[in-house]
Design a protein that fits this description.
Elements lengths: L6 H66 L5 H28 L3 H29 L5 H109 L2 H114 L4 H110 L6 H33 L16 H13 L1
Length: 550
Amino acid sequence: MNRKVSIRVKMVASFMGVALLLPIISLFNWSNNRKVTRHYEHVNQLNLLSTEVLQVFRQSGVDLMNRALYLGSAGVTAEEKKDLLGQISDIKDQYEMVDSIFATNASSDDERRQQKDMSARWKEMTSTVQRLAEMIDKPSTKPEELHKLLFTDLKGTAEAYAKVYTEAADLARKHSNDLVQQAEKTAKMGNYITIGLIAVGFIFATGMGLIFSIAFTRRLNVIVARLADYARECRDISDKILGANSELSTASSSQSASLCETTSAIEEISSMVNRNSDDAKNSSDASSKSLAKANEGYGAVEQMINAFGKVNSSSLEFIEEAKKVRSEFNNVVNIITEISSKTAVINDIVFQTKLLSFNASVEAARAGEHGKGFAVVAGEIGTLAKRSGGAANEISSLLNSSIEKVKSLVQESEQRVNFVAAVNQKEIDNSSNILKRCANLLKEIVNLSQTANSLANSIANASQEQSRGVTEVSIAIMQVSDKTQINHRMSEEGMAVSQQLSQIVKNLSAVMTDLQETIHGNNDTTEESMSDSYSDEDKSSEDSVNLNAA
């Protein structure tokens, strides 16, 4: 035998399916936000590491070049030479330490290739500086050889090193941009999937509502049609019963008829009072159960509201973390600004070098023929000072450009984080408002259920009082009824007609039971006694009229 599912169970199952989509969407948004946050954290770590390492590489090359030029200049004492060689050794140690860190943290083949190329160019520069130191120690070294080593070999290796450094910086920026694009792609994909889940939930809820309403309406139409047919038959038989009762009343004496009518009326009243009492009791039980379920639903909605409050707190924590990241970027900007200020010191050194070159030229001119070689060196020093000044200006320009780019990146990151946070906050507020409305509605249902439960208890108490009064009256009437005999022949005829009516009423009871099972299910028996009330003749006539009118 197939079990029929109640309307309440069907509706709860349908709404639970839609309600389950809410935590799924919230969980997916949380997971997507974690992914985006990890991407941005990776970008920040990569930018900070690349900026610091590349800055050390660039500064090491500049410092090594400056020390080598100063070492190759004329008039360097032995003590100054020793100090310069010590500084060059410190620069090498610093470079090798940072180079090992860069090699360890290289995350791609391109970065490892750049590290190897830069290390090779650095070795070439250090080898050239080493040759310079050895040539200076030899008295037989010619100025032309020294000049060639400084301004041809060392300059060529320095330019190659600067080229590799520029390529490494470009690669770091490209890698950072790729990670940012990946984070943006992840965020967009999360938004699309969220919209898709909401659309699926809407379609699912609409489809379930249509299917449920169509199936339920079709079933009710069939049952109502059957009820109308049985009601018409019941009305015809009721007419026959009325005719039989008329003949019986004319054949009996007025006293017997009065007693019969009184007895019948008392029995009907007693039956109606008993059924009313049972119905009131069942209604009270059903009202209590409804009240308990409404309280459970109200508690569940309050728990959901608390859960959305926790989601809102997580969104605020995400915004605070984004602000911390912005503060770290500002620190990077400040560091680059401090580096830019140091280029002014280089410009001062360039000016002093030019002044020294000019003084050396003047002294060479005074020396005459013996100062020509020194004049050539002084001219080269002046040319080198001009180039150093130009390089310092280029470095200052690059640092200013880097500051602007970092500031722009900070502003864009802040705007994007604010936009994502605003969207999440709006969705959370909308969901929270809907849950609050549900909580208010459930609270109203609880209040109404309490009122209905109180009224049902009052009706049940009044019905019990009526039942006791009707029982006392029935006892008194039965004592008088025992002394009265009713016409046997007419009674038999009335009994036969009553049996036919009883069969029709049973059919009506079966149809009503089917309707009740369709609405409440097999397990819901709180209103089962209502079907028995339709066996009465007056009730059958009223139901027939109502169905025909419908």
